[in-house]
């Protein structure tokens, strides 16, 4: 029986961002420089495929620094760490390398600057996410208040409404965040902050590409992990832009084929931590069932690159 036709829209940009590329390189270069095992505090990026392949090369993933020995190098994940973590690594005289994305470090520095200026900080982010914990952990307890929704703004208790600033997580929904910023500015007109928010270029671009393809597609698949904030936001953006079916899948084996039986078009994208091999795998799985025609939906071209820390660029 001939396969039915299917238009497959591929989002661009999708997949790895510059911060993820750098973080993975840091682990690989550390393994080359010091040999195995190299410890990594938290998943270097939120993707099981990436973590498993680094584990095979000799990386050992732990959740807390205390699980790593003094005498092996330790790497901090791309999401950032509270200040207490590198402080403890220094106290233990450990070789430690920070794979925090430079765009997250920029937010840490912003928080520090506002604090030096005597401002209390409101962070827009998701409770319990490692980036939020790392950023809030740059300052003493009580100096950074968390808001997750526009509703949270109404009940916020601040020290002085005239001496406030806001910062954000880098992987939020651009549209939801704009509404929260608006609520903050309405209640605290003096609040300082970035021009818009601290959402990074990669998050913004991936959300834009999903919005552009949404009117064309019967279903959207986002390749990414269940703990990947930026990937989950892509599913929400797709659903809100009108995709009746928008799903997060880690790889081809997760696809619910019965749920998308009869579709004529599909959109595929990948979160910033999802490797392109998983995109290829998903596209191949579609080709096995449909007569696929691919169209690229390109809304931006990314040329951002970040250098790895100097210690890894120097000869051993
Ligand atoms: C670091 C930062 O690993 P991810 O899935 O992380 P999120 O934050 O989206 O859960 O994606 C790459 C990445 C994104 N942001 C890494 Cl701060
Ligand atoms: Fe950095 Fe944004 Fe990627 S904060 S790690 S460039 S998703």
Tell me what you see in this structure.
The strands form three sheets. The chain has a five-stranded parallel sheet with strand order 10-9-11-1-12, with helices on both faces. Strands 3-2-4-5 form a four-stranded parallel sheet, sandwiched between helices. Strands 7-6-8 form a three-stranded parallel sheet, with helices on both faces. The longest helix is centred in the first third of the chain and has 17 residues, at 18-34. The protein has three domains: 5-16 and 201-298, 4-hydroxy-3-methylbut-2-enyl diphosphate reductase, catalytic domain (Cobalt-precorrin-4 Transmethylase, domain 1, 3-Layer(aba) Sandwich), CATH 3.40.1010; 18-101, Rossmann fold (3-Layer(aba) Sandwich), CATH 3.40.50.11270; 103-187, 4-hydroxy-3-methylbut-2-enyl diphosphate reductase, catalytic domain (Cobalt-precorrin-4 Transmethylase, domain 1, 3-Layer(aba) Sandwich), CATH 3.40.1010. The protein contains eleven helices and twelve strands. It is an alpha/beta fold. The model has no long low-confidence stretch (mean pLDDT 98). Bound molecules: (6-chloropyridin-3-yl)methyl trihydrogen diphosphate (2E7) and FE3-S4 cluster. Residues 17-20, 78, 101, 103-104, 170-171, 200, 202-203, 230, 272 line the site of FE3-S4 cluster.
């Amino acid at each position: 029986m001939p396969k039915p036709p299917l238009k497959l829209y591929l989002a661009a940009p999708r997949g790895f961002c510059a911060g993820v590329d750098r973080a993975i390189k840091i682990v690989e270069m550390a393994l080359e420089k010091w040999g195995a095992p190299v410890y990594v505090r938290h998943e270097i990026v939120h993707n099981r495929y990436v973590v498993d392949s680094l584990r095979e090369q000799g990386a050992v993933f732990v959740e807390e620094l205390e699980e790593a020995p003094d005498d092996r190098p330790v790497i901090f994940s791309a999401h950032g760490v509270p200040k207490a973590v590198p402080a403890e690594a220094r106290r233990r005289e450990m070789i430690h390398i920070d794979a925090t994305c430079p765009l997250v470090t920029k937010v840490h520095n912003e928080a520090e600057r506002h604090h030096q200026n005597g401002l209390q900080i409101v962070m827009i982010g998701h409770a319990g996410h490692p980036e939020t914990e790392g950023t809030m952990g740059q300052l003493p307890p009580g100096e950074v208040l968390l808001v997750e929704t526009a509703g949270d703004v109404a009940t916020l208790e601040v020290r002085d409404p005239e001496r406030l600033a806001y910062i954000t997580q880098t992987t939020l929904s651009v549209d939801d965040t704009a509404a929260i910023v608006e609520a903050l500015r309405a209640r605290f007109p003096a609040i300082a902050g970035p021009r818009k928010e601290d959402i990074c270029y990669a998050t913004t671009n991936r959300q834009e590409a999903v919005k552009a393809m949404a009117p064309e597609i019967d279903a959207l698949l986002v390749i990414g992990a269940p703990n990947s904030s930026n990937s989950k936001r892509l599913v929400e953006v797709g659903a809100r832009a009108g995709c009746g079916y928008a799903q997060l899948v880690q790889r081809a084996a997760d696809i619910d084929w019965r749920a998308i039986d009869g579709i004529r078009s599909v959109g595929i994208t990948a979160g910033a931590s999802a490797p392109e091999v998983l995109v290829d795998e998903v596209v191949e799985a579609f080709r096995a069932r449909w007569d696929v025609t691919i169209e690229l939906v390109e809304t931006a071209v990314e040329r951002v690159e970040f250098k790895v820390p100097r210690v890894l660029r120097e000869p051993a």
